[in-house]
Specification:
Distance between the termini: 38 Å
Number of helices: 7
Strand content: 25-35%
Radius of gyration: 16 Å
Structural class: alpha+beta
Largest sheet: 9 strands, antiparallel
Shape: globular
Amino acid sequence: MTGLQWMYGSDLPLINITFARQINARELLDRMGVDQETVAVRGPDDFHYDLGGHLYTSDGYVVSAGHYRAWAWAWEHGSWKGVEDRGLLLRASIGTAALELHASEKPGMDFRYAENGRLVTGLNTMNLFKRTGTDPHRFDPEIHALGARLEEGEYGPGGSLGLFYKLAENLGVGLPLDDLNNRPVLSGRLLPPPSR
């Protein structure tokens, strides 16, 4: 499977992924504010041994990171630093482009795309489809091509998750399921946002 295909139709109650183009996974973690003492390449067993006690806790800030084509990815396991720290995406995008995908059980989805430290497009289904950024309609041609009419509450055949996954894939992002679950990748703990 390529891109985010394994995520379509998966029962993933919480998703918090940050992507950045043309930087490596370590640089992405640095920009996200990783605790340097916790970063290591870990296989699944070491990951669970070293970080398992912090998984899926609100203050755990456990993250895995890797690469897919020209993009680095970082998956937050449980904590929501990308949501709590609104400057995280902007820092990740300095000198490049970055994307955040957030989803919760509500259901709600947040798609935020930034370039060179500025939010270009933010699409949020949780606030009656709120748009933000310097170019909030940047992806409208792609959105319409996918059969969605957002202002009318119509997300197309894949629903809001499918629409936002497809928009992300159109940018070239991906996250191999084997990298997330079975292969050694970088992992560690992010430092809590300043407000914590």
